[in-house]
Prior knowledge:
Layout: H1 2-13, E1 20-24, E2 39-44, H2 51-62, E3 66-70, H3 77-83, E4 85-86
Parallel strand pairs: 2-3
Antiparallel strand pairs: 1-2, 1-4
Amino acid sequence: MLVKAxxxxxxxxxxxxxxxxxxxxxxxxxxxxxxxSDVDVAVEGLPxxxxxxxxxxxxxxxxxxxxxxxxxxxxxxxxxxxxxxRVL
Length: 88
């Protein structure tokens, strides 16, 4: 799932005007990503007016619930930047 998610996110965000995209959470931890797990996607520079459509698009694209995190507003931003997997 990780490789597919990385590829899908790169394709999706390639044409978007965002600064960075990270995967974080259980998808990065061996044995912790379960069939019912959501995918945690952190984005820097996502225009506020695109948040809801991006959330819906990613859910359809990944066939999972998505937790879309705006890095600028996130209290654990540093953790994402240090431990997350940068996709774009």
